[in-house]
Amino acid sequence: MDEMNEIEFELIMHSGNARSYAMEAIREADKGNFKKANELLSESKKELLNAQRSHSGIIQDEAAGKKIEITLLLMHSEDHLASSTVVVDLAKEIIKIHQKYNKEED
Asked: Fewest CB within 10 angstroms: 33, 61, 89, 91, which?
């Protein structure tokens, strides 16, 4: 496997982990487990950061003049990163909403 494939698979793995943690955080917030939800959201953000670091390497290589071949795998990994970023952002907001309505019920 070449270096680019490794980066693509890292993007997919870390993005997928970020999305999974974020979805689990939403489920915990729905149960009222806000401490656990925030811990999972923190893990999600760490995974997203790892994915973004891998992504930055691709951008830096292209900016330095390295020819980047656009493959289906690269497009797939970019899609994973984009969708995971949205899920993590939405999870943060959904958790806030759950916390707000949980306080109002008390």
From this structure: 89
- Marked catalytic residue, from 14, 55, 76, 80: 76
Q: In CATH, what number is assigned to the domain containing residue 31?
A: 1.20.58.80
pTM for this predicted structure: 0.90
Q: Which domain holds residue 77?
A: 3-105
Number of domains in the chain: 1
Q: Is 76 tagged catalytic?
A: yes
Task: Output DSSP code: residue 54.
Answer: H
Q: What is the pLDDT of residues 34-91, one digit of tens each?
A: 999 999 999 999 999 999 998 998 999 899 999 999 999 999 999 999 999 999 999 9
Kindly report the length of the chain: 106
